[in-house]
Write a structure and sequence with these properties.
Layout lengths: L3 E9 L3 H19 L2 E6 L4 H7 L5 H9 L2 E6 L3 H4 L8 H11 L4 E7 L12 H4 L3 E7 L9 E4 L2 E4 L5 H16 L4 E6 L5 H14 L6 E6 H10 L6 E4 L1 H11 L10 E5 L4 E5 L16 H13 L4 H16 L20 H12 L1
Helix pairs in contact: 1-11, 1-13, 7-8, 9-10, 11-12, 12-13
The structure holds 3-isopropylmalic acid (IPM) and magnesium ion (MG).
The site of magnesium ion has 2 residues, from helix 10.
């Protein structure tokens, strides 16, 4: 029996517009093939929303988000703010606020390497092969949400964590570790930061509930190094908001490109799915962005929010087949890729749809 679901699509800024169209098309194709009923609504957020309403997260978008069963998001940000630290209203505020409002405290970032992309990474293939990491990035605490102050020539952002925030993300990470290789690495900076000492203390306590999972604690600087030195040593990694932001961009090289990585943000209510890449204004509107991270975000949505495992696997397989056929977008092509196999956004999306049939 098919399921009936309401999906909110928020393309956002820059290449978000181009790539999210393909995540949505994949969901429509899955609905058709498996006789599900997905209805779609659209919302604005980020720079486009500031331009239209003055608000990076209009009330209407938030209300639609609350009413939906899942949200597919694109990207946020605009170059014009990047070099203007004085702007008070900023696109990113929309994303941060929706994460907070919807209680999306756990950001899952699976680092999955498609075999055919071994060559696309800047890391040696023998180091990458077999790497499979699942990041749990805490998403609604840390310096991102602590008090901000500016007093003349001084500025501060409060790094703050509460016990319950660490407990709930740690539990989610441990539960996931149980379904994988039963290894969990908690990343912090407990040799320097008090917030990290609380983090470590709480993770050590939660660890007692999971004696079947091997726990390791690592400092962020060391983790950043180990990640490219020997990515295979990691299974589940759990870390705070800021460290997770940085480590997962680094980890994208393990998957070949930022253009390949999808993420799921979950917590109290509705699930939110987005590529980890940004709005990439340098290539926006050129039709060359990689749609695969959005398509893989759609796969995560099917699995995590709707429990449609088979459909989700079907999407991942279609991506795998497309790569195996040799097709690449610019970001994952290399000098050996024949010219006619380097595709733009729409041609790549079309190949994936064909392979979904
Ligand atoms: C991410 C992004 C965001 C973050 C930005 C756009 C606010 O980098 O989702 O990783 O820092 O969380
Ligand atoms: Mg980031």
């Amino acid at each position: 029996m098919g399921v009936t679901k309401q999906i909110l699509v928020i393309p956002g800024d820059g290449i978000g517009q181009e790539v999210t169209a393909w995540g949505k098309k994949v969901l429509e194709t899955i609905a058709e093939n498996y006789r599900h009923t997905f209805s779609f609504d659209e919302g604005i957020m980020g720079h486009v929303a500031i331009e239209a309403t003055g608000n990076p997260l209009p009330d209407e978008t938030l209300a639609k988000a609350r009413r939906s069963d899942a949200i597919l998001f694109g990207a946020i940000g605009h170059a014009k703010y990047d070099n203007d630290p004085t702007a008070k209203v900023r696109p990113e505020q929309g994303l941060l606020r929706i994460r907070k409002e919807l209680g999306l405290y756990a950001n899952l970032r699976p680092i999955k390497l498609f075999d055919d992309l071994l060559q696309a990474s800047s890391i040696k293939p023998e180091i990458l092969q077999g790497a499979d990491i699942l990041f749990f990035r805490e998403l609604t605490g840390d310096v991102y949400f602590g008090e901000k102050q500016r007093n003349g020539d001084s500025a501060s952002d409060l790094m703050i964590y509460h016990r319950y925030e660490v407990e709930r993300i740690a539990r989610k990470a441990y539960e996931a570790a149980r379904t994988r290789r039963r290894k969990l690495c908690s990343v912090d900076k407990a040799n320097v930061l008090e917030a990290s000492r609380l983090w470590r203390e709480v993770v050590q306590e939660v660890a007692k509930e999971y004696p079947d999972v091997e726990t390791e604690h690592m400092f962020i600087d060391n983790a950043a190094m180990q990640l490219i030195k020997d990515p295979k040593r990691f299974d589940v990694v759990v870390t705070g908001n800021l460290f997770g932001d940085i480590l997962t961009d680094e980890a994208s090289q393990i998957a070949g490109s930022m253009g390949m990585l999808a993420s799921a943000s979950v917590g109290d209510t509705v699930g939110f799915y987005e590529p980890i890449h940004g709005s990439a204004h340098d290539i926006a509107g050129k039709g060359i962005a990689n749609p695969l991270a959005s398509i893989l975000s759609a796969a995560l949505l099917l699995d995590i929010s709707f429990g449609l495992k088979e459909e989700s696997q079907r999407v991942i397989k279609a991506v795998d087949v497309t790569l195996r056929q040799g097709f690449r977008t610019m970001d994952i092509a290399n000098k050996h890729t024949p010219n006619d196999f380097v595709l733009g956004t729409d041609a790549m999306g079309t190949k994936v749809l064909e392979n979904l049939q």
